Amino acid sequence: MSQDISSKNERIAEKPDDGPKLDLTSGIMLPVAVVVSLIVFFSIATESFLTVRNMTGILGQASTLLLACLGASFVILMGCIDLSVGAIVLLVGAITVKSLNLFDVGIGALLVAMFAGAGLGALNGLIYAIGRIPSFVVTLGTLSVFTGAAWEILQGRALRFTSYSFEELAIGQFIPAIPNIALFAIGIWAILALAGRYTRFGRYMYFIGGGEAVSRTAGLPVLRYKIYAFALSGLTAGLAGSLAVARLGAAGPTLGQDLLLNTLAAIVVGGTSLSGGIGGVHRTLIGVAIIALLDNGLNLMGVNQYTQMMIKGAVVVVAVLIGQDRTKSTVIK
After folding, report:
1. Which has more pLDDT, 271 or 55?
2. How far apart are CA 290 and CA 215, in angstroms?
3. For residues 111 and 94, what is the distance between their CA atoms, to the nearest angstrom?
4. Contact in structure between 212 and 331 (CB atoms under 8 Å)
5. Whole-model pTM?
């Protein structure tokens, strides 16, 4: 019996014709058109928008957001949600600075951040999958726990570090005008986009999001892959926190505080359905570009942060209304 189930899993994972059709281009033209429209609008509205210095700044800001979104995209793709991404960024950022100051690990702090982030994400996954508690409730609770732990480490103040080699990971420019953090983010995005398309892990995310009950009936290891998805979400959030600290030169209590809205906004605006099974990490890049351009352009125009929150919230709602094929989402979770 176990051999039959195993062979069935192999066929599901390895034969694309037997699985969900992963259309990389369907529905992507609208988000791309929005990106182009924003660039044109802000270029006209403010002279400083379309400058090399500002574009470099946008790349740095967008890279942290992209890294934070990558793993979370898989969580949403399988029909769950991770509200603790910003808190993991903050906590791992604080752990990174402590590691640098106490042990002088240099670029090794990046490995510390990856393990710490993956561990925090796996904790989310274990509580959710084994405890059978809704992911919304689990990650809302751990958001508070992780934030409190980070504030305990930081003691309410910004912690700085003095490792030049670690700083260079983010602010150095291997390619002129493009910060290294952007190269990291694009590289990891490309790897995970390919993983979402061509690996068993990626295909299982679509199957679970498209129909968890059917996936269980087919013999897929649903609980295990849910834990994997949350661990990946924590890992990429940890990378985001570590590289954000490298870019800023310090970890402060406000690190990652805007990522709760921005990560969800970028993923949904990019075209990944909150109901699961539709979209993918390949779309997240476009969503991140939209949110980063909005943030930067509105700041240059002098729009206050409260109005910006209202605008971004409206963008998310509009994106769900007109940018996703809701006929494929038979269940609204």
Report:
1. 55
2. 34
3. 14
4. no
5. 0.88
